[in-house]
Amino acid sequence: MPKQSKTPRNPSPWPSAGYVAVQQILGRWGGPLPISPSRWWRGVASGEFPPPYDVGGRTCWRVEDVNRLMDTFAEKEAPRRIRRRGATGRPSPAA
């Protein structure tokens, strides 16, 4: 019998309400947030990311909380001023 992949072939679309598991949140498993599982759990422990809920024995997060977090990530990823580097590889001095 062939091995079954743990990654779903047809991932479901992002829900508009309810709860989602960590596998639905993180990019490693096809989710919208491009962070690692260890970074996720550090953020949860520090309070930087939303707290989990126990839903039928599974650890889940409210979709509304994750949507707010994604908005925060989008704001941080907004275009920033890029500093050009000189021939030495160091940032060029401010003019």
Summarize the structure.
With 95 residues, the chain is an alpha+beta fold. 29% of the residues lie in helices and 12% in strands. The chain has a domain at 19-76.
Secondary structure blueprint with pairings:
Blueprint: E1 19-21, H1 22-25, H2 37-46, E2 53-55, E3 58-62, H3 63-76
Antiparallel strand pairs: 1-3, 2-3
Word description of this protein:
The chain has 95 residues and is of the alpha+beta class. The chain has a domain at 19-76. The chain has 3 helices and 3 strands; from the N terminus they run βααββα. The protein has helices spanning 22-25, 37-46, 63-76; strands at 19-21, 53-55, 58-62. Strands 1-3-2 form a 3-stranded antiparallel beta sheet. Strand 2 (53-55) and strand 3 form a beta hairpin. The N and C termini lie far apart (67 Å). 6% of the residues are buried. The model has no long low-confidence stretch (mean pLDDT 80).
Distance between the termini: 67 Å
Judged by helices, strands and strand pairing, the structural class is alpha+beta
The percentage of residues in β strands lies in 5-15%
Average predicted local confidence, pLDDT? 80
Indicate the radius of gyration in whole angstroms: 19 Å
The strand count comes to 3
The oligomeric status of these chains comes to single chain
Supply database-style keywords.
globular, alpha+beta, 95 residues
